[in-house]
């Protein structure tokens, strides 16, 4: 149950300041640099008006600003949208069109998968020197694969009558030298489904098209509004609440509503700062849309050591308060937070919830550091409502297909839903900030590991024995965890909390990353315990590659065992 301090804070939530921000943001687009700067100043001004100090940090971000695109064929010009980070070819590129069929994601959990239904259609000999026409969204996996197989351009046929903005690079944030080779080197654009149907017919007859894209790519100074609300007991420890303020077009549901939610939460928490045990840091990100989470990645880089030593959890606020969003289905939460999230959603809203493993998306720029994390998208319309509306899966806006289009306007926002979501986020952040012992149960994560390992062992077949050291290490860790949580109520609270936080630095990277700490893995789907996932593929590989896969698995096993043993020592001390 929510304690009296949280209930008091919730009772202070008002729609005045947040709804005024939503209404204002609905009047101007926020992806071009000058508009982003105006939006940041507006957030800072509104915070000042409600008495909350705000610091405007300056991030130098490498961004891709898309302007316009078109596809010309047989005297007809089809309007298109360029994908951010695609190659800019305003003069046009002419080539033969080839169709590679695709399928749509059935849910948000699979939204960033390749979704291709005919592998033979992606044969390199067929694609080399051609412009690929593919169904669905131009996700980075597909674009990179088509480029590697020799395609000179990609046209994505979006599933509805609208064309959706997006980004086709898998590079997370501003590229470093290691990431630069993954930057797309071909033009990529999106067309509507009706226009795509005409282009499919053209592709089937071997027709040609001219693809034009116009983008601006380079370094941009980008403001980052940040509010620090200092706790009264453990001031150095903090919860990070964050979301992006840049948007495609006016982006009401993605993410003006989120910006408004954080504004109101900042106001209420500032008024109740004496009732906070730990601090709360609230940040609004630029470069989410035009830089693949560049703002949050910059913050993770610039304040990495502080985040490593002091951040107890990160909470993402994206697309709350949208129309018809009357459920909390498939809420993103890491397994150690599951029980906490279900409880706080029930206590704050009266609704039950279901969760899913966080996608490699949504400003989760802190996995490599190892931050416990929960929430990404907020409330959503039910599966039944989506079917009733005949909506396809999108990545925000409460499930409304206005996502990443010009239609994400005021009618997408719902004041009552926004107020409910604000109260939920406020309750969740304040609950973590005030918990005597951090409310994260790593036994759930150990159980997730056990389930993942069981699946991988079964799929590994004859190579299952290679995974046995992980099973042994995991068993020892689970036993140590049980003892730790049994004894935690009688430990000094600082000792228990240090262990819970330190476990995150070990186990979150183990479960969500392949790369090193303080880096940024690509924006591509990441399986559970990714260092071991190759175990599921060995039997499907050609025989001359299986030895290489086993070598990769052995190395992954070694890293996993070492991490589990370090975690065991930590909780055993």
From TrEMBL:
Q: Which Gene Ontology BP terms does the record give?
A: proteolysis
GO-annotated cellular components: extracellular region; lysosome
Residue ranges of every copy of the PA domain listed in the record: 94-199
Q: Does the keyword Repeat apply?
A: no
- Note the superkingdom of the native organism: Bacteria
Quaternary structure, per UniProt, is: Homodimer. The monomeric form is inactive while the homodimer is active.
Q: From the Swiss-Prot or TrEMBL record, give the protein name.
A: Carboxypeptidase Q
The species this protein was found in: Pontivivens marinum
